[in-house]
User: Fold this.
Amino acid sequence: MSSAILERQANSQGLPGLKSFRGPFLVLLVFAVVIPQVHSDYLFDAILTPFLAISLAALGLNLLTGYAGQVSLGSAAFMAVGAFAGYNFLLRIPGLPLLAGLAFAGLTAAVIGIVFGLPSLRLRGFYLAVSTLATQFFVQWALTNISWFSNDDTSGVISPPPLHLGGFALDSPVRRYLLCLGVVAVLTFLAMRLVSGQTGRALIAVRDSELGARVLGVKVLRTKLFIFAVSSFYIGVAGALWSFAYLRTIEPDGFDLDRSFQILFVIIIGGLASIRGAFLGAAFIVVLPLLLSRAGAILLGPGFDSGLVDLVQKIFLGALIILFLRLEPAGLSALVGRLRIRRNAT
Amino acid sequence: MAGAAIRLSGVTLSFGGILALKGVDLDIHAGDIHAIIGPNGAGKSSLVNIICGIYRPEAGSIDFDGQHLSRMETGRLAKLGITRTFQNIVLFKGMSVTQNVMMGLTHKTRSTPWGQIIGSARARREEAHAYEIARAILARLDLTQVQDRAVNTLSYGAQKRVELARALIAGPRLLLLDEPMAGMTAGEKVRMIAFIREAQAHSGVTVILIEHDMGVVMELSDRITVLDHGKRIAQGTPSEIQVNPDVIDAYLGVAHADDGDDAVLAA
Assistant:
């Protein structure tokens, strides 16, 4: 049994090895078939859709930070690039299918990601993190001050076009949720495949020892720029989903430094270098506060002071995070992995 | 693949005005196990780092396998058939033992990331091949029992062997071993010597060995180069080196006379 734990540890730190896709597929089935039977707009609009968008952004950041070891504080900037690029592509190319718009949103973010990933060729750790702040501030500044990006709209808050998939209007919370689920499922599958092969090993090698990787013939610079591009693609698509399917408005303000930190916390809580960690962390960071405020509303009855609940909720969440990092630094993913081993052992 | 010869001529290197290597010549024959020895600070590691392209020599040149190079490039080492182990173990702690060893085949990868994602025929073939020969080399180095473990859970000696396996998997022509026995128990050293011998006999690889344990050096080496204060003071077979007066002086006459090496040398 101890060797099973050790094996699991090796895997949880990076690679799923030769594991099958059965577990994730069953989870997907539940989310795609069972959950849509629930009749609650609140569940889809306020919980599951933002959960999926943040999960996808966290997955993108985890590829970059968890697997390849390149710390970034610019995730929200890439979300903003994705959101605005998707908006502009769909606006300016009439008849462009939605999925193509999302792909272009991701590709635009990928190009920006390569540009702002260039400092990673020289900088590491904290220094790189600080340089990614430049992305954060520059992108927000550009999107706020260059009115072409928002189609010269003076209100500062623009609406995405109506969403269609083929001839199918995505006009209900469940349908928008299913769009997110489909996109996230496909991209998650691709990410799982990516990290389980030679490229995934090269990412971890660059993270664990650049010198060791270089000596073995890993093209370190190319690998870094590649993963900046892939990561930014994922985060860009996540930003587009966040704006189009969840907020249904597009504005730079929602993509501030707080959002970047939120996504970083998601992968730290969920587990670095773990695909499922992105989802577990997103559930913790995005869904738990919503549940807490709901619980607060129910417990305190009508007429409660929402400001107070907000405060209590923040304290509670903060305490949970500290407690959690103290007890389980490898994240929720490692916790789940251990629970599963224990269950299999008994 | 047979081993390759490497020759360094007049290599000079300095750090901030301090000369680390002064016009060092090094002539290593194909298929030899060639030890480089010398007291601490003699320039052994500098020499290895020049061969690995980590330092750029200020003067001198390198001939590797008939190619004349003014300097080596770290990123091209694997392609040239040069692999190494490190004095301070450099393994990828986020991976299993097998995955670490598979990394030794990086430079032979032809499949693209996209090919790996969609599982192209080439990607699957490469992955299966890498996995298979990694398992084979781990079996040869007696690491089968730990092959699926996270590499950082292994003992120090076993980690050194994983590094050796990773360096051997691609069938190198020149293998640099930077203190492969450091920190090992006597029993582990005996096994490591056997593994290096076996690897050398198996493929005819040229080995450059940096090692402080004179017993190991004398037992393994075909030829020995002795450095002191950045200069080559002797080169020859173990029996020649043992009786070389300059070498004895270097070891007895400097501050390192008390570390036991001299006793072994004299023996």
Remarks:
- Residues 255-267 of chain B have pLDDT under 50 and may be disordered.
- Chain B touches chain A through 40 residues (CB under 8 Å).
